[in-house]
Amino acid sequence: MLEQAKGVYIVAQTPFDERGALDRSSIDSLVDFYVAHGANGLTVLGISGESSRLTADEAVEVSARFAARARTLPVIAGVSNPSLAHLAQVTRAVMDRGAAGVMIAPPAGLRTEEDVFNYFDAVYSRIGDVPTVLQDFPAATGVAMSVATIAHLIGAFPQIQALKHEDLPGLGKLTRLRQMQGRRTAILTGGNALYLPLELERGADGPMAGFSHPEMLSGVYRLLCAGRRDEALDLFERYLPLLTYESQGPWGIAVRKEVMRRRGAIQCAMMRPPGPRLMSIDHAEIDALLIRLARANAAACSATGAEAR
């Protein structure tokens, strides 16, 4: 059940080949890459998964391929769409083909708590008892949901089993969310994991974020859970320059795909048009960031070995 979700739910990229067609074999290698680096679950068809550039049939195929390769690892499929008919159709299809649940954000144009409530009432009248992650991402949707609104939705719709929290500023809201009375839901945080250690200390159950080095996300989570705070912060800070560099909207997704291509997770870093393409100066900056990261990791390993001796 999604209300028990904990750990790292990686937001997966959608691999394409040089022609912009789905790269199915890279979906398989990408799942293996995420699993090897500590993923507890996967989230597909999100914004950084370029879901808006997929047809409905492609979206279902991508979700099904991820689910099949992930086996027992839960896969959450983003199904947000202004069309309720489209949302319901894709929801039925991804659930029939192995998804553990869906993620839904309110569409642009909702202005009041009543609007938001009525929208989700209409959603669940169409999709029924489907486990849902409620996505709170006003920077993308334009819909601001207060803590009171979120609590109202969770109380009214048992299908909402988890919340993806990526409002900004978000730490205070996260604290208030965790203090909500009533049924407990999992809280997974987005925002490219830029505030991950603080969010975990405020009560988040883990990140639902993408990064080219998911081993950092899983490592920080494990260290903090074990009470090894200084080690967790040291690990996070080594990766922070690259994490920040990747946190630049669609252009940052292009960077992330390129780094994962270099790491062998995918065959091609292509984004579907009108997605950005990297220039030579971008590649040079990536080179520099990866060199510095390798040096920092080597120094950390050396220091740890010296202490152990």
Q: How would you describe the overall organization of this protein?
A:
This protein has helices at residues 24-36, 56-70, 84-96, 113-127, 138-141, 147-156, 171-178, 196-201, 214-225, 229-246, 249-262, 280-308; strands at residues 9-11, 41-44, 75-78, 101-104, 132-136, 160-165, 186-189, 206-207. The protein is of the alpha/beta class and 309 residues long. The chain has one domain: Alpha-Beta Barrel (TIM Barrel), CATH 3.20.20.70. It has an eight-stranded parallel β-sheet. Helix 3 (84-96) links the parallel strand 3 and strand 4. The model has no long low-confidence stretch (mean pLDDT 96).
Key terms for this structure?
eight-stranded parallel beta sheet; TIM Barrel; alpha/beta; 51% helix
Short summary:
The protein is α/β, with parallel strands linked by helices. It has 12 helices and 8 strands.
Topology:
Blueprint: E1 9-11, H1 24-36, E2 41-44, H2 56-70, E3 75-78, H3 84-96, E4 101-104, H4 113-127, E5 132-136, H5 138-141, H6 147-156, E6 160-165, H7 171-178, E7 186-189, H8 196-201, E8 206-207, H9 214-225, H10 229-246, H11 249-262, H12 280-308
Parallel strand pairs: 1-2, 2-3, 3-4, 4-5, 5-6, 6-7, 7-8
What coarse outline follows from CA principal-axis ratios? globular
Q: Count every beta strand, where a strand is a DSSP E run of 2 or more residues.
A: 8
Tell me the name of the CATH class. Answer: Alpha Beta
Order of helices and strands: EHEHEHEHEHHEHEHEHHHH
Average pLDDT metric: 96
Name the poorly predicted regions.
none
| Radius of gyration (Å) | 19 Å
Largest sheet, in brief, is: 8 strands, parallel
- Strand residue content: 5-15%
Q: Look at the structure and name the CATH superfamily.
A: Aldolase class I
**Which structural class do the helices and strands define?**
alpha/beta
Number of distinct helices: 12
What order do the strands of the largest sheet run in, or round the barrel if closed? Answer: 1-2-3-4-5-6-7-8
Helix share bin: 40-55%
Question: What CATH architecture label applies?
Answer: Alpha-Beta Barrel
Q: How many independent structural domains?
A: 1
In whole angstroms, the N-to-C terminal distance is 44 Å
Query: Could you please say which CATH topology applies here?
Result: TIM Barrel
